[in-house]
């Protein structure tokens, strides 16, 4: 083979940083890379997680153990880390763009584990976080209107080459759904149920077929052209309004009572004891749509009773860059009115 002259390809599947269709795709790729060098029997996962973080390990026959993640009135969000087992790897994440979790000593965990994976999906816009992980990954589509893109990083050495196709089908499905919603929001055109169905169809497709895909060129261009400084500034301001407006409430609890300047919130989570779904419906009736993180699934059946509480009480208040101060003040007023509380 001749050497030199013009390049004929851009190899996207070697090196220390890779882009993938989704966070789950990136995690599955990381697992395959780890298995090339290590015998892995189990992974210690946070009990508070989405089923999409669990399934790739089960796919590879890796046993899943959970460490409890829970809320304590005096300490805030906490984790209870058990002793390491043989041939086990550790999975770590922080939540909603807030970095504080009591009970987690990453220096000690680093000493105990040969391999650490950090899910930075909620924290990738934060600054000043020390990286203890061997692998990190993040899904960007949780933060803005991307059609499907995530990033994986390896701290030392290069990823093993793994063949993969381009995730055109899923990205096209999401793009169609997003444009239908845009027309609905801006001009009142299209049936709302129709674009919601399109989003559901895209996620159902990804659920069945996510392994090995890289993003389309259009998704990469979206990433390059996104103004993340605007996103950070708007989210911080919106979150501050929610945090201030809901502080001191008796009927619901802020999972994180404040943020530091390095925190860029994905959502502002609250805990509602006993009537979370009723509050959520009230907000929907007033055209405020807040997700819950996350639905319990069959993958979660080994959670402790303490670990399940946060799933039953958490509601994620939207604070993203599509909205301004008046929108956040509306959310605060609705929640206070629902509980008949006033500042």
Description:
With 343 residues, the protein is α/β, with parallel strands linked by helices. The chain has 3 domains: 17-154, Type I PLP-dependent aspartate aminotransferase-like (Major domain) (Aspartate Aminotransferase, domain 2); 168-210; 228-338, Aspartate Aminotransferase, domain 1, CATH 3.90.1150.10. Helix content is 37%, strand content 16%. The strands form 2 sheets. It has an 8-stranded mixed beta sheet with strand order 1-8-7-6-5-2-3-4. A 3-stranded antiparallel beta sheet has the order 9-10-11. Strand 2 (42-46), helix 2 (51-59) and strand 3 form a beta-alpha-beta unit. The chain is globular. One of its GO terms (molecular function) is transaminase activity. It comes from Hungatella hominis. InterPro entries: PyrdxlP-dep_Trfase, PyrdxlP-dep_Trfase_small. Keywords: Aminotransferase, Transferase.
The total of helices stands at 10
N- and C-termini, Cα separation: 74 Å
Q: Can you tell me the CATH class of the largest domain?
A: Alpha Beta
Give average pLDDT, whole number.
92
Task: Write the CATH architecture name of the largest domain.
Answer: 3-Layer(aba) Sandwich
Q: State the oligomer.
A: single chain
Helix content: 25-40%
Provide the domain count.
Answer: 3
CATH superfamily membership of the largest domain, which one?
Type I PLP-dependent aspartate aminotransferase-like (Major domain)
How large, in whole angstroms, is the Cα Rg? Answer: 21 Å
Strand content: 15-25%
Shape type: globular
Strand order of the largest sheet: 1-8-7-6-5-2-3-4
**pLDDT < 50 runs, ≥5 residues:** none
**How many E-type strands?**
11
Give the helix/strand class.
alpha/beta
- CATH fold-level assignment of the largest domain: Aspartate Aminotransferase, domain 2
Helix and strand run: EHEHEEEHEEEHHHHEEHHEH
Please outline the major beta sheet. Answer: 8 strands, mixed
GO molecular function: transaminase activity
Protein name: DegT/DnrJ/EryC1/StrS aminotransferase family protein
Keywords: Aminotransferase, Transferase
Organism: Hungatella hominis
């Amino acid at each position: 083979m001749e050497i030199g002259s013009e390049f004929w390809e851009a190899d996207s599947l070697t090196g220390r940083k890779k882009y993938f269709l989704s966070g789950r795709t990136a995690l599955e790729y990381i697992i395959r890379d780890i298995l090339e060098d290590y015998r892995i029997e189990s992974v210690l996962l946070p009990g508070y997680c989405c089923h999409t973080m669990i399934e790739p390990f089960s796919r590879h026959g890796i046993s899943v153990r959970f460490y409890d993640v829970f809320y304590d009135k005096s300490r805030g969000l906490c984790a209870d880390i058990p002793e390491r087992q043989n041939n086990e790897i550790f999975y770590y994440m922080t939540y909603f763009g807030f970095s504080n979790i009591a009970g987690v000593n990453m220096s000690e965990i680093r000493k105990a584990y040969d391999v650490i994976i950090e899910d930075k999906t909620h924290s990738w816009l934060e600054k000043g976080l020390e990286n203890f992980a061997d692998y990190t990954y993040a899904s960007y589509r949780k933060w803005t209107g991307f059609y499907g893109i995530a990033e994986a990083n390896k701290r030392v050495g290069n990823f093993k080459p793994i063949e993969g196709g381009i995730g055109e089908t899923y990205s096209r499905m999401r793009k169609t759904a997003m444009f239908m919603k845009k027309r609905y929001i801006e001009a009142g055109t299209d049936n709302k149920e129709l674009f919601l169905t399109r989003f559901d169809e895209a996620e159902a497709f990804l659920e069945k077929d996510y392994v090995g895909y890289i993003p389309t060129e259009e998704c990469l261009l979206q990433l390059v052209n996104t103004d993340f400084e605007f996103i950070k500034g708007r989210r911080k301001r919106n979150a501050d309004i929610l945090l201030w407006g809901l502080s001191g409430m008796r009927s619901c609890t802020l999972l994180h009572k404040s943020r530091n300047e390095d925190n860029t919130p994905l959502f502002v989570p609250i805990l509602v004891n006993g009537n979370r779904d009723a509050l959520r419906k009230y907000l929907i009736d007033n055209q405020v749509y807040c997700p819950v993180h996350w639905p319990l699934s069959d993958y979660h059946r080994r959670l402790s009773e303490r670990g399940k509480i946060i799933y039953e009480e958490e509601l994620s208040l939207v604070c993203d860059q599509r909205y301004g101060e008046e929108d956040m003040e509306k959310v605060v007023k609705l929640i206070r009115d629902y509980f008949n509380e006033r500042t």
